Amino acid sequence: MLTKSLVPLLALGISLTAVPVTPAHAQAVPTLYELQGENIKVVYSTTSFDGTPRFNYQDKQQTLQFVGEDQIRTVGLEIGTLVTVTIAKTVDRGSTSFSLLLPPVNLGQSNQAKIVTNGITTFNRFNVITHLNQGQTKFYRITNLTGTAQAVQF
Questions:
Q1: Model confidence over 105-127: pLDDT tens digits?
Q2: What does DSSP say about strands 2-3 and 63-67: parallel, antiparallel, or unpaired?
Q3: Which end of the chain is less crowded, N or C, counting CB atoms within 10 A of the terminal residue's CB?
């Protein structure tokens, strides 16, 4: 990030701090993703008006809203960014999470691009009876998702 010299302004008695300047060759980075497929609709924003990420998940049974990094978990991977939220929890049966795989997107000089990716619903099997917890404990359902990645200023 480049900064602009404010020394001439300070000489005039104006008290300012360095202002970030985006170079003309800089490319927009997606901050809003809107995706859908097979009865699932997802809207994810990496930030919002208050600076926190937002994740809206909708399927045939429920509509859920998540706010902040304690509810929305992100992991950077070689293949993209994995964004995960917990969509169901039970005390004695396990939980269900939904992960959105965000591919790297180069918006160029545009502020929007179409993307195709996957959503992964993970069923975490758990039983309070210990000997029933043997074998595979996670099962996955992959959902093909299409939509847009956009650069939005909040």
A1: 999 888 999 999 999 999 998 77
A2: unpaired
A3: N
